[in-house]
């Protein structure tokens, strides 16, 4: 029992490391991938129409980019959208939702959240700033990767910069990915053991120690409770 607890713990740790490696791989190699879906746009206004909130979301393999813009007029123009901004905003990007009831200009007019991971999004980074100046934007939840990890930065969307690696964990996706990735090393550990037990049983040997068991229900060598087939 103790052995299996150790094996499962090791597999979960391996799954967590693979999870981080996959998310960072997509962050670095995003320029080499093509979007898998067109842009999803949504727009919402407060009751007085004083503030407008627009959301744009694009999905790549292993990456989802969400852009939230708040202004006094629609930044993207206007009509013809069937979604609200609330519907277009992914659940993991709720923290970039503006306060539409604010009576003063927002300190940051736009915010971005970029999530990475496969098959589920498991880590993200964020960027926020103002349209008025070029000096008040900043990143959060990120690590500035070393030069040997950096991509070519040829993305047509300037907001996506693959040299910044995500550090904020999206727990539902992280746990789901970690368990999926943990299954592979668990099978690697378990398959040889199951195969050995099957072969020993076919040869009428103890599945634990390999000693011939004949018709005995108990192994006379190690005492394992096994019944001969």
Question: What does this 3D model show about the protein?
Answer:
This protein has 229 residues and is of the alpha+beta class. The chain has one domain (2-175). The chain has 3 helices and 9 strands; from the N terminus they run αβββαββββββα. The protein has helices at 2-28, 85-88, 171-202; strands at residues 40-45, 52-60, 63-71, 110-116, 123-129, 138-140, 142-144, 164-166, 168-169. Strands 1, 2, 3, 4, 5, 6 and 9 form a 7-stranded antiparallel beta sheet that branches. β1 (40-45) and β2 form a beta hairpin. The longest helix has 32 residues, at 171-202. It is elongated. The two termini are 25 Å apart.
Characteristics:
9 strands; seven-stranded antiparallel β-sheet; 3 helices; elongated; 229 residues; alpha+beta
Q: How are the SSEs ordered, and which strands pair?
A:
Layout: H1 2-28, E1 40-45, E2 52-60, E3 63-71, H2 85-88, E4 110-116, E5 123-129, E6 138-140, E7 142-144, E8 164-166, E9 168-169, H3 171-202
Antiparallel strand pairs: 1-2, 2-3, 3-4, 4-5, 5-6, 5-9, 7-8
Question: DSSP helix count?
Answer: 3
Low-confidence stretches: 73-81, 156-160
**Count of discrete domains:** 1
Radius of gyration: 27 Å
What is the helix fraction of residues, given as a range? 25-40%
Largest sheet: 7 strands, antiparallel
Tally of strands? 9
Strand content: 15-25%
Mean pLDDT: 76
Amino- and carboxy-terminal Cα gap: 25 Å
Dominant shape = elongated
- Give me the strand/helix succession: HEEEHEEEEEEH
Helix/strand/pairing category? alpha+beta
């Amino acid at each position: 029992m103790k052995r299996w607890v150790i094996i499962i713990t090791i597999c979960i740790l391996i799954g967590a490391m693979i999870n981080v490696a996959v998310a960072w791989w997509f962050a670095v190699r995003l320029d080499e991938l093509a979007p898998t879906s067109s842009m999803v746009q949504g727009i919402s206004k407060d009751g007085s129409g004083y503030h407008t909130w627009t959301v744009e979301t694009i999905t790549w393999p292993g990456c989802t980019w969400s852009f939230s813009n708040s202004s006094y007029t629609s930044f993207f123009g206007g009509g013809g959208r069937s979604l609200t901004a609330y519907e277009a905003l992914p659940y993991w990007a709720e923290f970039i939702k503006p306060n539409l009831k604010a009576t003063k200009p927002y300190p940051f007019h736009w915010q971005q959240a970029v999530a990475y991971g496969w098959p589920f999004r498991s880590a993200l980074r964020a960027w926020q700033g103002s349209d008025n100046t070029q000096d008040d934007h900043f990143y959060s939840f990120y690590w500035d990767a070393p030069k040997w990890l950096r991509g070519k930065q040829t993305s047509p969307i300037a907001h996506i910069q693959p040299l910044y690696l995500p550090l904020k964990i999206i727990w539902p996706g992280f746990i789901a990915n970690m368990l999926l990735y943990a299954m592979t090393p668990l099978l690697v550990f378990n398959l040889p053991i199951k195969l050995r037990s099957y072969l020993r049983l076919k040869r009428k040997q103890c599945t634990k120690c390999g000693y011939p068991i004949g018709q005995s229900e108990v192994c006379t060598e190690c005492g394992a409770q096994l019944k001969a087939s």
